[in-house]
Amino acid sequence: MSDNSELLTPELKRLLDKYDRPGPRYTSYPTAPAWEDIPAADLESALDRYVSADDAGQAPPLSLYVHIPFCEERCLFCGCNVVISPEDKVSEPYLDVLHREIEMIAERLGSRRRVSQLHLGGGTPTYLRPEQLQQLTRWMQEAFVFEEDAEISIEVDPVVTRPEHVHALREVGYNRISMGVQDLDPKVQESIHRVQPEALTDKFYRLCRELGFDSVNMDLIYGLPYQKVGQFARTVERLVEWGPDRVAVFNYAHVPWIKPHQKQLPAEELPTPDMKLAMILETGRIFGEGGYDAIGLDHFAKPDDELAVARRNEILRRNFMGYTTQPSTESIAFGVTAISEIMGIYAQNITRLSKYQRTVLADHLPVHKGLRMSGDDLLRNEVIMDLMCNLVIDKGRIEARFGIDFDRVFEDALIGLREMQEDGLVELSPQEIRMVGHGPILVRNAAMLFDAYLPKGDEGSENLFSRTV
User: Fold this and answer.
1) pLDDT, tens digit, 9 for 90 and up, residues 3-54
2) Running DSSP on this structure, what letter comes out for residue 5?
3) How far, in Å, CA of 416 to CA of 418, rounded?
4) If you count Cβ atoms within 10 Å of the first and of the last residue's Cβ in the chain, which end, N or C, has fewer?
5) Cα–Cα distance between 445 and 19 in angstroms, integer?
6) Which residues of 214-244 are buried (b: 16+ CB within 10 A; e: fewer)?
């Protein structure tokens, strides 16, 4: 495979030059730059509204997220909120505070509410010792009622995750595991400070299969230093040989003005935008030929995976934990920086570890920033998430749910979409808007047309967002 993939045609290069610009990733809408300081009372009120709806049988089960911020070392590509602590001096105090936060939320909810999803992320959740992970999980199981088929998942770094961790996770009910791989090339790994030999990944993957996890996910990142199209293709081909149930292929966001540690990366060795586009096109081809379905913008799943089924039925959804088949998102998040999304509000916890701990120990919910969504926010959130998840907007469904005339409300967006239609990226009809051709690669650009918060006269900001390609 050449590093100038034959898939990257002159026409596609033209589209790249035209549409590559800064823009949100739309893990939420409105996106985080639009959020403001909000009081803890906003989250308390949202929890009260959830209780009323659930008592009336009108609320879905909850999704829960727990943030473990600690890592032994910092990976230079990382954009997460992490605390670097080579020695385990921080986990016990943090767990004590987490326990208190869980108790406060449970007390507010008044009884053990139903849960369909629990996810531990980070940082590195397996920074915690196996017995600590089990204790944390049991606290959650004591505070909530987990449905029989609940998804219980965790993100892990195979380099620091021991077999004892994996056995302990299975013992307390974890049925999904997501492992970081990023790239199997040693030179790339060294440049990002994430050395993970292929043999280690292979051994870890086989252990997860032996222990019977329902779903095993692997994460890749493209756009890292020293990556080339053919070299990255070999990593993708190896993943197809392993056969994980799902694969996430993330576009590296180089934002050193936001994440200063990224300045340590050799920026002159980052692949060009056209090389990155060739990488993701080649990745899609390899996974497609390997029997995987494309999911949303950057995921792949085996055809019988529930995400693939939901995507074919155009009912895929997304929350802060990733793509989901949950029909509605009502999520509560625990831990420093964690973000809840419940009953029309976003509520992010305090981002400074010491202040987060002091606030919880003073028996206050540690809310820092967020947003009370307006009716227009809820409408645009639905439209943008439909586009990002399913690559289609059913105008009739939106009109029926929100009582609007779609073409009138989104007249300005439709003008921009007509230009994308002329470029063969979008199909517009009276019934729907559908990404076609190379459109899925540029779906962020289409979503930006529905964003009421982007700066006027410019679809994005160099200082806020990564580039769309």
Assistant:
1) 555 667 888 888 888 888 888 888 889 998 999 999 999 999 999 999 999 9
2) -
3) 5
4) N
5) 7
6) ebbbbbbbbbbbbbbbebbbebbbebbeeeb
Residue with tokens 């060294």: 190
177: three-class secondary structure by DSSP = strand
CATH number attached to the domain at 24-333: 3.80.30.20
| pLDDT tens digits, one per residue of 84-122 | 887 778 899 999 999 999 999 999 999 899 999 999 998
**What pTM was estimated for this model as a whole?**
0.91
Distance, C-alpha 362 to centroid of its chain: 31
Domain boundaries, the chain: 1-23+374-455, 24-333
pLDDT category at 459 given cuts 50, 70, 90 is very low
Q: How far apart are CA 458 and CA 236, in angstroms?
A: 36
Instruction: Quote the CA–CA distance of 215 and 380 in Å, as a whole number.
Output: 32
User: What is the C-alpha to C-alpha distance for residues 181 and 254, in angstroms, rounded to an integer?
Assistant: 19
Q: How would DSSP label each residue in 285-351? A: HHHHHTTPEEETTTEEE-TTSHHHHHHHTT--EEETTEEE--SS--EEEESTT-EEEETTEEEEEPS
Residue 28 vs residues 69, 119, 152, 233, 370: alpha-carbon distances, Å? 21, 17, 22, 30, 12
d(CA 357, CA 93): 9
Q: Do domains 1-23+374-455 and 24-333 have the same CATH topology?
A: no
Per-residue pLDDT tens over the stretch 270-305: 998 888 888 988 999 999 999 999 987 789 999 999
The predicted pLDDT at position 161 comes to: 96
For domain 1-23+374-455, the question of CATH label 3.30.390.50 is answered with no
DSSP SS3 for 201:
helix
- What are the structure tokens assigned to 3, written together? 């590093």
Q: How many residues does the chain have?
A: 469
